[in-house]
Amino acid sequence: MLKIENLHARIGAKEILKGLSLEVKSGEVHAIMGPNGAGKSTLGNVLAGRSGYEVTAGTVTFDGKSLLDLEPEARAAAGVFMAFQYPVEIPGVNNTYFLRAALNAQRKARGGQELDSMQFLKLVREKVKEMGMTPELLNRAVNEGFSGGEKKRNEVFQMAVLEPRLAILDETDSGLDIDALKQVAAGVNSLRSAKRAFLVITHYQRLLDYIVPDFVHVLADGRIVESGDAQLARELEAHGYAWVRERTPAEAGA
Amino acid sequence: MTTSVPFAQSMHAAALQRRLPGSGLAWLDAARAEALQAFAARGLPDQRNELWKYTSLRALAQRAYAASDAEASTRIVDAAWLPAPALRASCAVFVNGAFRADLSQLDALPDGVTVQSLASALREAPEPLRFLLDKRADDDDDGFTLLNRALAADGLILNVALGVEVRDPLHIVHIDLAAEAAAAFHLRSLVEVGEGARLRIVEHHAGEAQTGHLTNIVRDINVHEEAHLDWTVIQQAGADATLLRRSKVRLHDDAALDLHALELGGKLVRHEIRTELAGARSRFDSRGAFVLHGRQHADMELLVTHRGRDSISNAVWRGVADNRARGVVHGRILVQPGADGADGSFYNKNLLLSPDAEIDTRPALEIYADEVKANHGATVGQLDEKVLFYLRSRGIPLETARRILVRAFCSIALEDMRPMPLREYCEALLAEQLPEVSA
What we know:
Chain A has 254 residues and is α/β, with parallel strands linked by helices. Helices cover 40% and strands 28% of the residues of chain A.
């Protein structure tokens, strides 16, 4: 589904990703871990299409097509979703209105039928139930005045409505207490399916106790230096990121 | 000097040509003549005048205007120019500066409400208007108020008697239609909301694109003790229109005014709203938004004076400018001695959608009383890239995302507008205006 090959990206003159390669198949959950500054968030932003990042080499294909050539909205329509580390507040834009605009824009871009407001409300009510979302949040402006936990739950709720094929979770655990973390993880787990892949970007192993990944990759200095299964995350937690650097001196120093 | 420019020449010519209603009355003739002389001496306001600092009239000074549209009272008006029948129970319609009884609907107004055109009032019973029209030039006058005094041929005289509640809004509609030549219309109006009375007015400006007309409105609005006025402005003047308004509002003890303004049309548009919170516990809330594109110029002057104890004013205004448009917002709160306990605020946020657009915003506070609360804030910025990206990352195309955000930005001006059908109508207008933004 997603194939990243030898990806190099920089912000201004600063090179952040230095030859990152990764393949994600449908149904898989991949965790990307790494110390601060390793390039975790840059990876998410480059995949989602945020401006300010320059890709200097490498390719990213999604279902065989180049993702990097697409505008952010086209990537979303293709099925890429990013749950943001810091979801923005949008005063004056109602959550339900926003979601409907997003869903219909995606359906339209894919050549499908737009949902009318009755159809959409029905869908949203179902999703509210499934995700245990507070219905009252739907009538408020997007993320305005939401607590940290509410914002992250709203991201997962959007994911449930938009049903992406690839979901990127950018440090979704940051700033959450344990209860909020469990709720968010439960939401994500309910969306796991054979047709959907997840890229879970996180600094801590904690989140991975609740969203158990199929693969764990360690990102250091702009590239993946070690890959393994969920066990790797637990070893990292026990030994720290320095442990990876010791084990992989050649790559890490490159 | 000033009389040599085409604009001033055309105004003097108009004064000679036109037989105004009420002419022959000695006091009125004298007041008009004196105002014209004062205009000749002062000319148009220039940018040294603090209230005209960002609005240049140099181009206007080079234009000449006809004294009137001879067919104003007979022109056929397409129903599309009038507010939807569902919205209006009552309306007073002006076409090219002339009141049109044939298009107005005033039968449904309750007893105690009188509506009259200035022209007919001057013909039938001018004396009660002497206090309004028999004035000498003073420091508050500028070139346009003087011209208005010299040349006003029509207007609206509206009176709501003590205790009368007018439930359905009265729509006051100004329509510009193309005439033989671009003409200047000077309108003088008076609104009296009697003690304990309640009134809603909705002021509309609409018109054809290429009329080139100038409309110069001066009005006095008095809201008496414990009375309440709701005033909504829906300004969609034609693309080539010049619209200048001076509204002088006086609020007595416990009186309240809620103003909502949506300024969308016109080429050169200005509204100077001078509100005097004269009475104790009087209140003035204003919310407004302008959305400008092309080379539109809009100037909102909000001059609030607190005189009454514990008087309250709140202003929340939003401005959006695209292309080469120019917006001006001036919010001045003056708290006079004796207005102890006054509470005044002015907040204005503006959005520039193009590098060539410009908005100048100036908040000002002057306080001469005790225990006063006063706040102000003004910003000019651009759409937040982070927020735009957030919308796009959810699949919303860039143009739609911009439109959603601009609309949300302005929507605060409509938030508490009532009744609901009127608010929905305004929201739809705003949405309609936005596809033209940031093309």
